[in-house]
Design the sequence.
């Protein structure tokens, strides 16, 4: 039984920082149907994102605001993550994805002009992180039902950042070493 019960308030001390092996390995697939424990952990993780985006609660618990969180960021070797974000059109998106896999993607790429950060990285790493503009993801929802979702724009960036974690990758692995602000030449890229 892990400590991440549905009523447990996740805080920054629970977030594993870069260098920890659990962030560098490919996470294990989650057994379906989800155990009660895994269901509760996902609730706890989603509550972190909601609390962290609440001005009062983020201050009260000293939380860094987050739009995504993967299970290995709280030390669990499980292929699952949550995301809670508002897109370019001010639409709110809430994702709880189990055993996600990108099954196809656009050639065109996008990036955040301000670069990316990570709750597991306590430093600023500058540079553009090229991401696919559109991705098609196969995953399972909390009821164990297979879902296929097509995502583009900012939500696509967030989900790719999370799937990277589950594959043991960090955002800065995608930054051009020679020139951090150089973008891949071969594809059309929008910010
Ligand atoms: O793996 C998951 N993570 O590491 C949490 C990251 C995930 C995002 C980084 C880029 C794409 C996904 C995260 O959310 N951040 N990175 C560090 C500090 C800022 C914070 C952030 O972007 N916050 C935010 C943004 C818009 C609105 C509200 N809050
Ligand atoms: Ni991250």
Sequence:
């Amino acid at each position: 039984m892990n400590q991440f019960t549905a009523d447990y308030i996740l805080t920054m001390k629970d977030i594993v920082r870069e260098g920890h092996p659990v962030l560098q390995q490919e996470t294990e697939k989650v057994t379906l149907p989800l155990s009660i424990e895994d269901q509760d952990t996902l609730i706890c993780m989603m509550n972190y994102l909601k609390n962290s985006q609440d001005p009062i609660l983020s201050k009260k618990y000293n939380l860094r605001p987050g739009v995504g969180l993967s299970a290995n960021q709280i030390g669990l070797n499980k292929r699952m993550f949550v995301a809670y974000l508002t897109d370019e059109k001010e639409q709110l998106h809430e994702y709880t994805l189990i055993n996600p896999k990108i099954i196809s993607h656009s050639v065109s790429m996008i990036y955040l002009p301000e670069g990316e950060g990570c709750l597991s990285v306590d430093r600023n790493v500058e540079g553009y992180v090229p991401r696919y503009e559109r991705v098609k993801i196969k995953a399972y929802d909390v009821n164990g039902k297979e879902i296929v979702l097509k995502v583009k724009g900012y939500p696509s960036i967030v989900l790719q950042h999370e799937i990277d974690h589950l594959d043991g990758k960090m955002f800065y692995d995608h930054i051009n070493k020679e020139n951090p602000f150089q973008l891949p030449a071969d594809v059309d890229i929008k910010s």
